[in-house]
Amino acid sequence: MLDTKKFSVFAISIIQTLQDNNFEAYLVGGCIRDVLTGITPKDFDIATNATPEEVRKIFKASRIIGKRFRLVHVFNRSELIEVATFRAGKQNSDTLVKDDTGKILRDNTWGTIQQDCHRRDFTVNALYYCPITDKIQDFHAGLKHINKKILVSIGDPQGRFEEDPVRALRAIRFSTKLDFKIDNKVKDAIYDKSYLLSGISNARLFDEFCKIFLHGHAEQNFKKLNSFGIAKYLISTDPDFSEFSMNVMLEALVNTDRRISNNQSITPGFLMAALLWPSLIKKCSNNKEINIRKFFRSMDEVLRDQHQLTAIPRKFQTYIKDIWVLQLKLESRIGQYPHKLVKHPRFRAAYDFLLIREAAAKEDSSIGDWWTKFQNQNDDEREAVITKLSNERENESDKKFGFSSELI
Ligand code: ATP
Ligand code: MG
Question: Looking at ligand 1, which atom is closest to the CA of residue 43?
Answer without folding.
Answer: 2
